[in-house]
Design goal:
Layout lengths: L17 H12 L7 E4 L6 H15 L5 E5 H15 L3 H9 L4 E5 L8 H16 L3 E6 L11 H4 L2 E4 L9
C-alpha cells in the first residue's frame, strides 16, 4: 500500500499538535461541535499536512462527501471574480457555489491580512456556511484574531495553535 505523504499515518502527534489532531478527528467524524475549526502556527508546524490528511480521511470515511480544498488566495480570487460578474448578487452567488460542498478547507487564510473589505466578505461567507452546517476548516500562519473579526460565530468553533512536533518520524 502506497501511503500519501500527507496522510495521518505520516503525521507525528505530540504535545504541540495533539489538540489540533483531536479537533481534526472530530471534523472527520462529522461532528459540528467545533465548527469552524481554525488551526494556526508558524511555518513548518504541520498545518498543511493536517489539512491534507483531514481531507484524505474525510474522502475515505464519507465517500460521497464533496470537498473544496483551496488556498486563501484562490478562494478570495474566486470571490472577487464572482463579485465582478454578478454584482449585486455576488455574495449570494458565491455562497451558493460554496454550498455545493459539504466541507470547505482553506489553507493560508492569513492572505487576508490588511484587506479589510475582503476580510468582511470572507467573514460573511464563513458565517453563512457554518450556519448551514457546512464543515469549515481553516489554516493560518498567525492567529486569526490579528486580522479577522473573531465574533460569536467563530466562538462556536475552535481555534488551535499548532506547534511542530519535537520528534520527526523517519
Amino acid at each position: 500500500m502506497i501511503l500519501n505523504k500527507y496522510s495521518f499515518q505520516n503525521f507525528v502527534i505530540d504535545d504541540g499538535n495533539e489538540l489540533a489532531h483531536a479537533a481534526a478527528m472530530l471534523a472527520i467524524d462529522g461532528s459540528m461541535e467545533y465548527n469552524p475549526f481554525i488551526v494556526f502556527g508558524k511555518l513548518d508546524s504541520g498545518k498543511t499536512h493536517l489539512l491534507r490528511a483531514t481531507k484524505i480521511a474525510i474522502e475515505r470515511k464519507h465517500k460521497k462527501s464533496k470537498i473544496l480544498y483551496t488556498t486563501g488566495k484562490k478562494f478570495i480570487s474566486k470571490l472577487i471574480n464572482t463579485m465582478r460578474k454578478a454584482y449585486p448578487t455576488y455574495l449570494e452567488d458565491f455562497i451558493k457555489y460554496c454550498c455545493h460542498y459539504d466541507t470547505i478547507i482553506i489553507d493560508d487564510i492569513d492572505y487576508l491580512k490588511g484587506k479589510n473589505y475582503t476580510q468582511e466578505m470572507f467573514h460573511n461567507v464563513i458565517d453563512d456556511l457554518v450556519s448551514r452546517n457546512k464543515r469549515v476548516i481553516l489554516a493560518s500562519g498567525m492567529s486569526p484574531s490579528k486580522y479577522l473579526p473573531i465574533t460569536s460565530e467563530y466562538n462556536s468553533g475552535i481555534i488551535v495553535d499548532i506547534q511542530a512536533p519535537k520528534i520527526l518520524k523517519v
